[in-house]
Amino acid sequence: MTRGASRSGNTSPADSGRSGGQAERAILVGVDFGVRTTGIRAGVIGNRAPVLRPDDAIPAQPGADFSPSTNPARSQVASNSARDLPGLDADESLAEFRELLLSAGGQVVAQVLQRRPKPDPATLIGSGKVEEIAGVAASTEADLVLFDHDLSPTQLRNLEAALPCRVLDRTQLILDIFARHARTREGQLQVELAQLEYMLPRLTGRGKAMSQLGGGIGTRGPGETKLETDRRRIQRRIDQLKLDLDAVRRVRKQQRQRREAVPVPTVALVGYTNAGKSTLFNAVTDAHVLSSSRMFATLDPKLRAVELPSRRRVLLSDTVGFIRNLPHTLVTSFRATLEEVAQAEVLLHIRDAASTYGEEQKAQVEKVLGELDCLSKPRIEVLNKIDLLPEDERSALLSRATDGPKGESAVVPLSAFTGEGIPALLQAIDNALHSDPIVDADLRVPQHEGAVLAAIEAGMVVHTREYEGNLVHLTVSGPASLIGRMRRFREQKFA
Question: Domain extents for the chain?
């Protein structure tokens, strides 16, 4: 991806720089500020050198530093989230960053971890480490260097001048993945807006870009730089995108109003990216939406109706996944999509039970929910992927399961892949809903009212059924809205 991404936002690291569709070769750079670490600094991956580990006794490779300053398996955060997520070590952070790169279609050829007491204002990592990365890039023929940290415009400009290949930061990579996976017109608008808002303060004028337009005989004057022209053009495009997304919000609002005319509550799936939301959505609704191990495979919200054990129907919404240090531009640009979360009556927080840093993932999801003012909503904690756990851990999780009676949170362990635990989840959703409550009723319906009897069978749970002449006596439980429409069969007596 280049910083000047196209309007459609469908450029990715795998799509540029190398011909024939070959994946771009990338160096991953993690940073660890203010935390003491030990071990190896750089590991070159691929045919040129083995992965470096603390106890390896191998000859030095170009760009590899054997000083005991950073061990990917022991140091804390390899990003700017060290203080936010104290339990996430550098190895896990870089593993997540590698998954991001794979989702963008790239190939990791080396990874470098830098420890500093504080960021370097000019290059983030210091001039010595920049020289080291330049050597690694030359020896591995890397196409780009990716930083697991946001870079300021000045840092980005200085690094691009010092390194022999392109430089991208964490936000640029995430934006690129979103652009790669955007399918609908709405998703493309949201991605483009996020890209342009990120790009605007990072426009730089160098060389011909600073030449004055309109110069020459008869046109003397201060003129206007190409940089200023680009900024104005991008700002105009941003303003237009915001208008287009406002129109999308109006359409969504109208759709919600039509749904609200019929009391069908919405339940939204939220969670860390790659926690299994789309797989669970498919298992519950049989919708066959794309489920992938790649991060951010789902960008556009999808709604499907689900019948609960009480025969109530709800709309289940699959939403975009969250990630640590989610760019703020994405949260604001995808607000039209995330409004489905804000309007939902119940949230299903899908968590990866097999993840080694699940608590940190949970904290990041709650952070984004806080930005959306959704922390007060009823939530059900869904511990997914229990089929990947050892039997003892799986049994311990199953013992933690709670039904989630009204006023309490539910914890539901399950496997969306095998289907284990899904009935318990549907029951927990039933318990968590507070609109259109379930009520009991005695009904006497004439046998010739076939449509009414069919509606009762379809929307209520029938406990008993007795025939009294031409009447059917039913004891049922069902949604209050549906029971209310049967009022005449509760009050009127038939001969």
Answer: 13-180, 263-432, 438-491
